[in-house]
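Protein entry
_____________
===
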Amino acid sequence: RVAATCVGWWRMVYGSGFFRECLRDAELRDSLDLHESHHIYFHVPVIMFRQVTDLRLSSTEITNKHLLQIVKTVPWLENLEIANCQQLNQSTIFNARTNLSEFVRIDISHTNFSVLAIACLCSCSELQQIIMHGIELTPEELLFLSSTFERISSGELMLETGNTNGGELELVSAVGLFS
């Protein structure tokens, strides 16, 4: 009975054209929100990502291989959310670096990335904000980032740690580090 229900559901989703219509709709948009969709991203043809500038993949089970494939397909991606994607490791950031030239904002909260991946992201010339809640950096690591990357100390690039200081969200910049 359960198997029949599942087969009926898949026929409805794939057979009726509903899923294809949703994908066609997504192709026309510059934003694609697949967060918390587990493996659904895997069923979206890569061509559907080509026009996307804002991609939300947080809390999915995306792999390093698939994220690299998507990033290579979408050269003008400006916003990427990969928070809570536990399948990813920081080598993906290093390998994708050459394809991140248009990035303005990235959310890597609650991932296993270290200061090295964050430093790699800091070298992206257009990046303005890195959201990294749940990633613990020592004061020495924060000092390393701000002294190595002028854009952080000048305030052009903000690192949002998610730590609160007196109830306000902490943004790491020259003011946040040295006040």
User: Anything to note?
Assistant: Residues 1-8, 164-169, 173-179 have pLDDT under 50 and may be disordered. The radius of gyration is 19 Å.
